[in-house]
Amino acid sequence: MQITEIYKSLQGESTWAGLPCVFVRLTGCNLRCVWCDSEYTFTGGKKMSPDEVWEEVRRLSPDGGLVEVTGGEPMLQEREIVPLMQRMVDAGYTVLLETSGERPLARVPEGVVKIVDVKCPDSGEGDTFHAENLATLGPRDEVKFVLSSRRDYEFAREFVAQHDLSRRVNAILFSPAFRKDATGARDASHCLLDPRELAEWILADNVPARLGLQLHKFIWDPALKGV
Ligand code: SF4
Questions:
Q1: From the alpha carbon of 71, which atom of ligand 1 is closest?
Q2: CA–CA separation, 60 vs 74, rounded Å?
Q3: Is the CB of 74 under 6 A from ligand 1?
Q4: pLDDT tens digits, residue range 114-144?
Q5: Which among 15, 115, 146, 158 is least buried, having the fewest CB atoms inside 10 angstroms?
Q6: What is the Å distance from ligand 1's center to 179 Cα?
Q7: Across the beta sheet with 93-99, what order do the strands follow?
Q8: pLDDT band at residue 182 using 50, 70 and 90 as cut-offs
């Protein structure tokens, strides 16, 4: 497998935000979102066997707990990551898989929580989510929309309604995009969409979404990696 980094931090997003979590960040992505803050995952990384990844996860969190498999796009390494996620689930870990939903998700193991980041138009990668993946979503999964404009918000709002998402999944997350070159101040001034404005839109339209802020960017310098 090609791995960019494995580290322990606090989960910054989703309904699991705030909990200690081991992050397994796989190298490589087939998308190029304009606000991507993980461009360092596109190339490089180091080769590790699934056994080595597993040992590192157990070293960082020996007694189970939360593991997020992320990237890049982790499902580009489906052949290795699917059995490894199954192994983690079998050992009692809670496994989150962060994916764009551009790759098929049908073979993701049953016990894994899928957090599917559906790309909105102003990400530059709209229309990349594969509609067949909707059928794989269940009551423990979460669907996230990273928003940088009113157009993105309206896309997400319509997607949620059209696919009756609130009845399919555990949570719908609307998150303002962060400027990818953000550094210094740990506050909302780096958001491409004002969180207060987004909150007002969600309330005005009664959207069944949870407003998500990237917790780690308010705790540590937004430019810091490995947190
Ligand atoms: S899918 Fe994720 S890693 Fe890939 S370009 Fe978009 S934000 Fe970056």
A1: 3
A2: 20
A3: no
A4: 999 999 999 999 999 999 999 999 999 999 9
A5: 158
A6: 14
A7: 46-47, 2-10, 20-26, 65-70, 93-99, 113-117, 142-147, 171-176, 210-211
A8: confident
> Closest Cα partner for 23 from 68, 59, 58, 62?
68
Determine which residue's CA is closest to atom 2 belonging to ligand 1: 72
Write out pLDDT tens, residues 92-110: 999 999 999 999 999 999 9
Distances in Å between the alpha carbon of 46 and those of 4, 27, 51, 85, 135? 6, 8, 14, 19, 34
Residue 83: both structure tokens together: 């059995």
Cα 63 to averaged position of ligand 1 atoms, centre (Å): 31
pTM exceeding 0.90: yes
Nearest to 159 by CA among 197, 190, 213, 121: 121
Residues 6+ apart with CB under 8 A from 111: 89, 95
Closest atom of ligand 1 relative to the 117 alpha carbon = 1
Q: Which two tokens stand for residue 101?
A: 């939903």
Query: What's the distance, CA 52 to chain centroid?
Result: 23
Instruction: Indicate if ligand 1 lies below 6 Å from the C-beta of 31.
Output: yes
Ligand 1 atom having least distance to the Cα of 146: 7
The answer to whether the CB of 152 is under 6 A from ligand 1 is no
User: pLDDT at residue 16 above 90?
Assistant: yes
